[in-house]
User: Fold these one by one.
Assistant:
Number 1:
Amino acid sequence: MQDTEARHHLAAASARATREECPKMISPLSLFNKLGRLTALEHGISVQAAQTFLLVAMNEGASLKELADKMDLPQSSVGRYLQDLSDSGRSLGGRRKASMGLVRVDVNPSLMRQKMFSLTPKGKRLLADLLA
């Protein structure tokens, strides 16, 4: 059920993104294939986190709000996926969930309270592998 829901959100996000907003836009079918490859990796990445990873890759420097709007999900959910993808990770039941180190968090220099998300070198290598 969650896979179907996540794929629906991914399709909706892909449909809303325009070429001007996202010059690296790839076809929805290609995106679904990449999503499947990401979730099959040993990282144990969830479909939602894989969707978030691909959206960050297509929108480097986007804020949490911008990413959540594109995914049509609450900011709290997208924030959890970004934590899983980042260097910091997050706590689950008192235990620290391993971080993936795929997404970097930077502070927006013009709006110090806003965070911007982009791929780390490790995330860029993974993306290059997926696009190969």
Number 2:
Amino acid sequence: MQVIVACVDDESCDFRTHVHQMDYEKASNNFSMPRPIGDDWLQRINHVPSHPPVLVRTQGEIMFVVFTSLKSGQEPKAGDAALREVGAILQQTKRASDICGRIGGDEFCILALESTPDKSQEWANRLHEHLTKGLVVHKPTGASVGVAFFDGTHTELEEMLRLADETMYEVKRAGKGNVLVRSF
């Protein structure tokens, strides 16, 4: 199962990981997973985060978890400055209904509901402009923006993420610093 954790306040805290199985109990905000220890292979590891998630969705083999804050008390690494800037730009350019988070490395994902291909293209162009002109750290920056637009027939989150990822890599192969919107 792939677990994607996103944080609204600080995208540099976001990550994705693979686990054999993970369950979530909304009433207690408890995440749990089986762990084989000794003869008791059904023992469960339980974790209740200090800040409850605002959204937990599981579809197939993907669990998407969104927190408002993941304050850990640890100082951010110096290399995270550019990622924090990108996160801030994403927060400034997204709509209130959009969900955005870092999904690994220097890749971010935005789930934009209630959009059209034309609106997606306009937003992607605006985002690209903000990223290439607005970053203070690590200039010059070549931002590749790949948008996968789904017309409502795709309902599997894993497939949607795969197609969005392919679109982004298609942009990178064509030369960094471009925008591509594909409809599926």
Number 3:
Amino acid sequence: MKKRIAALVLCLALVFALAACGEAAPATESAAPTESAAPVAPADVPDLEVSANLDFGTGSSTGTYYGFGGAFGTYISNNTGVTITAVSTAGSQANIEMVDAGEYDLGFVQSDVMSYAYGGTNLFTEAVTGFTTLAALYMEQVQIVTLDPSIETVADLEGKTVSIGARGSGVYFNAIDVLGAYGLTESDIDPIFQNFDDSVESLQDGRIDAAFIVAGAPTTSITQLATTQDVYLVSLDQEHIDALIETSPYYSAYTISADTYGTANDCTTVAISAVLIGRADLDPDVAYTIAYTLFQNADKISHAKAAELSLEFGASVTDVPSSASSSVWAARASCSTSAKRCRSRLLRSASKSSIRFRTGSSSAVQGSVASPASAVSHVWKVSGWWLPSSSALAAGQEADKLISRKEP
């Protein structure tokens, strides 16, 4: 088994290292089949003998987490020995807590909530470390939804009745962050604490003026609302976006195009990452099978978010380390032959591409690498490894240990 894993990863490293010349291109959705269309390509899955039944904590039944999680969970279940059951949940905090407790095997989380958990802040009274990151998947936009065209800026929310997410939820803290960037606090609005579904219902019934919804656009609940109402998204201006990112660097600027919900104009806002996590003791071969199958078959998964998957973005999680078991597995898979040959191979692969990469807390560099740790981190980007960059770095450090023992 180890030899097969090593051979698979080495082949991937060789192919991608020779071909890579820049950032991986995101996958695109498959065209609708026609009479003359070619048969659907078979699934590209790793040659691993795995068998597992996993419960996957997602989110609201009308949210992107549940829809996308169900779509790729079904694809993986149908094409590998890993069966994934998507479960509707209260969202990021609940998913982290349930994965940490061993009740769920996988979970969808917002990157900011994940950081709160690992640091024991905001939603969490103490650090939660019983989970591993598998990959960042796509961006989740902070969407301020209203049916009132007079609400044009965040400042216009003052004195309005606004749903800011369930009390203490990730959405709640996103709302507080955005309001704070405009000099507003919770006391400057009439806050209502509702989830996505209840917020949309309240908007439709005229009980609230606006709602914060943080999810990948298009979000099902907003799309459904837009079928019966004229929906407006409130934009953030660049000055306040910059101020928000400066104080909360886990945000990124993002533009939601007008055709997403049929609005009159594009919406400028901020976004965080949707991250796939798993139990800290998740079988590394199972984790590899999930991530490999997901990224390699993005064009075959029946959900719009699959088109946003990319290896470069998948490696963007750096503030929460992966589990020790995943790191050791990565090192074993890449360096299961001679340690000296491992170092030579990684350094040669790294020198063949100009892709930028990070190692630990050091700044991004190009071209050469100083150690197997940075080489492994680089080859992760080039070769299609699915473990987060923190795991790649740990894998390289494991390689350093092997080399220091002067193994043949």
